[in-house]
């Protein structure tokens, strides 16, 4: 199979987006699903917020620059990427903490039901947060049932309070059918929480149309909000009156500056706020979202599929790559913006790739994971990455001892 | 009483610290207890982290720049300011969320006890977080008893699980006797959580010597870590084996990158981590703490007392200031680094001061609060602030309608 790579780049409707990122030279970055690249606008905004807003305006910046409203205004910028009407998204804390708020909220809405169904191999923190609630409340009120993926449908019965799933699996990239599973669960009276960490900014989403109850998502992967950027919560408007979340801090109070001794929740998604958010971190995310302002998510999805299909197609040209076994779905329709391959030497292969300017990541125990970010990757980057991978595998360069020393890897 | 203001500034051993801050011109900033001023090192560090570490090193920065260790390394930088040995402080999340972790941890350690004693007029979020736990667990397991300050001693009995107090009151600036109250509580088998929001970086602390159990503190007030900077947790080493906190996220796992389905807490204070922290926010705080590296906290305290005493002394020279009634303790030994005055027109007076380049803050319903930050305030600033305040009060400038329009105030 032959490809006119240059032509693909020339005709790419998203080609201009790359200019909005500050990318290191001589690097092909295939890990934007772990930490998105730096948008130039974020660097500029952080400088503005630190040096001028904080430095010059000090405390008055909270009003003057509407810092106090950022969790909601940035939330409303994310909403279109989720297929969500305004007023249903708030930017706050981390996915882990936001799941805690939503899980307890949902359990409170389901008296007489105690089970949280999830799947084995979900991103671990999602399971850990349920385990934390189970340890605190006891299994009468919260019991995690994480089942193999193929048993999910059968696990949904009238004892189940909550179905909590990650839309795109972090390891394989497999996409769940959000609409089908949401409806299946809701038909049994189950509330559904979707983790959109590997979806938001990568695949088109339709939370409102799918009648989703709640969701969380990540600011630092495909949204490019910076390392540890704040996460977000989506809560369908129909549930706002029933929210009762346990992390009832002053920023979620109906009137925080009344300094009353008794908690009274703010209306809507604002009540999911807890403490004072980092404005610098929030501003970096806010600016990063501007990259999406003129971007059609279907165009992102189309290019994402083309990039992954190109990778797979070129891989077939190299016999030395046959030992890298695809662990992602072969059908791009049910695959997120990543490709994962298993190999016994996955860790060393990752290190060798990094040593040669191609950045994937390793996911224990044996996965090399490539993330494909259509906003700043070119088709020619994919071709070059395959060439480098083939060189590494063909000459077994990954066997060099320097690629086999384990360090903490994120 | 006369003062040689110039001489006070000339002889000030902390005078050089002011140079380490980027301060706006023509502004006297008396609100560093709400949002600390910008350290020049923080601006430089944020630029470095965004443009070089994130921008160039991308995902590899987590190891290359030890981002993954920042919660602990920054915690160990804070520890000396707390009178705490290393390994007991971790930087994470907000005070509100950290209180939740500690309250549940402490309640778990106190089977058969359910009461959390605090005081009325404590910073509201502290009370709200207990209320959130009470609503979740029921009053059999958690019941808030917030009493008037003078009834605190009597409220401490064998039913009490936790005493949760703020060391320096946000409204009045009154300092609790940490050593006496900790001992009094512990004599009844009560665990003690101190909120050090208005203490850390302002008054010398001796958590280890006072045998404190747990504490939380703020990164964005006297530590100057930036708006919404991450907060910290102190947990005495003797309790580390018993920690069981409910927000059991992957960053607090013993081996986060094993991606196992079951939560297993990390050793020590690391298990208080939950989600992925904002590295940009953490870096700003990290750099801000370097200002304290060569600073003696007793020198900070001495200057703080001198600044507040100077303010009170100069205030006495102006009959027009007599209506501003001191609500802080008159004895500087039991007063933090602030002075609060009540006045029926407190809001408008604050606005008029801001209009004239002096920044205090307003605390509902009727408090003008002045914060005194010895690292960047001069004695001459205090004298000038009093002159401006006297002009405003003498000519009732605060009655101008433009100073009477309410906005959100932090």
Automatic annotation (TrEMBL), chains A, B:
Keywords: Hydrolase, Pyridine nucleotide biosynthesis, Pyridoxal phosphate. Pfam families: KYNU_C (PF22580). Its cofactor is pyridoxal 5'-phosphate. Its EC number is 3.7.1.3. InterPro entries: Kynureninase (IPR010111), PyrdxlP-dep_Trfase (IPR015424), PyrdxlP-dep_Trfase_major (IPR015421), PyrdxlP-dep_Trfase_small (IPR015422). It catalyses: 3-hydroxy-L-kynurenine + H2O = 3-hydroxyanthranilate + L-alanine + H(+); L-kynurenine + H2O = anthranilate + L-alanine + H(+). The modification N6-(pyridoxal phosphate)lysine is found at residue 221. Pathway: Amino-acid degradation; L-kynurenine degradation; L-alanine and anthranilate from L-kynurenine: step 1/1; Cofactor biosynthesis; NAD(+) biosynthesis; quinolinate from L-kynurenine: step 2/3. The keyword Hydrolase applies. Pyridoxal 5'-phosphate binds at residues 95-96, 123-126, 166, 195, 198, 220, 250, 276. GO terms for molecular function: kynureninase activity. Homodimer. Catalyzes the cleavage of L-kynurenine (L-Kyn) and L-3-hydroxykynurenine (L-3OHKyn) into anthranilic acid (AA) and 3-hydroxyanthranilic acid (3-OHAA), respectively. Belongs to the kynureninase family. This is Kynureninase. It comes from Salinimonas profundi. The lineage of its organism: Bacteria, Pseudomonadati, Pseudomonadota, Gammaproteobacteria, Alteromonadales. The gene is kynU.
């Amino acid at each position: 199979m032959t490809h006119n790579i240059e032509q693909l780049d020339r005709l790419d409707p998203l080609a201009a987006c790359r200019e909005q990122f500050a990318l290191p030279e001589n690097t092909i970055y295939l890990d934007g699903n772990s930490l998105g690249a730096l948008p130039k606008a974020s660097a500029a905004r952080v400088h503005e917020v630190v040096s001028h807003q904080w430095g010059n305006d000090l405390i008055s910046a909270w009003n003057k620059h509407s810092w106090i409203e950022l969790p909601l205004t940035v939330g409303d910028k994310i909403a279109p990427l989720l297929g969500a009407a305004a007023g249903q998204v708030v930017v706050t804390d981390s996915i882990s903490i936001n799941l805690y708020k939503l899980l307890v909220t949902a359990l409170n809405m389901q008296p007489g039901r105690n089970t949280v169904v999830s799947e084995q191999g979900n991103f671990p923190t999602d399971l850990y947060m349920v385990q934390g609630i189970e340890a605190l409340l006891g299994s009468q009120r919260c019991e995690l049932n994480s089942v193999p993926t193929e048993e999910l449908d059968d696990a949904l019965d009238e004892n189940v309070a909550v179905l909590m799933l990650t839309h795109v699996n972090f390891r394989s990239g497999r996409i769940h059918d959000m609409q089908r599973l949401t409806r299946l669960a809701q038909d049994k009276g189950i509330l559904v929480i979707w983790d959109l960490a590997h979806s938001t900014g990568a695949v088109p989403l339709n939370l409102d149309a799918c009648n989703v109850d709640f969701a969380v998502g990540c600011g630092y992967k495909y949204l490019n909000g910076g390392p540890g950027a704040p996460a977000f919560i989506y809560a369908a408007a129909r549930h706002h009156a029933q929210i009762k979340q346990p992390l009832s801090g002053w920023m979620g109070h109906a009137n925080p500056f009344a300094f009353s001794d008794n908690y009274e929740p703010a209306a809507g998604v604002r009540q999911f706020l807890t403490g004072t958010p980092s404005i610098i971190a929030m501003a970096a995310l806010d600016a990063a979202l501007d990259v999406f302002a003129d971007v059609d998510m279907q165009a992102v999805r189309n290019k994402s599929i083309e990039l992954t299909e190109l990778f797979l197609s070129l891989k077939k040209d190299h016999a030395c790559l046959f030992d890298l076994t695809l662990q992602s779905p072969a059908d791009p329709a049910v695959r997120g913006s990543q490709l994962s391959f298993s190999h016994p030497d996955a860790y060393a292969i990752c290190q060798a790739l990094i040593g040669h300017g191609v950045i994937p990541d390793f996911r224990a125990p044996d996965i090399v994971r490539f993330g494909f970010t259509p906003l700043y990757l070119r088709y020619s980057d994919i071709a070059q990455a395959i060439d480098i991978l083939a060189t590494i595998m063909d000459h077994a360069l990954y066997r060099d001892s320097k690629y086999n020393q384990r360090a903490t890897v994120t």
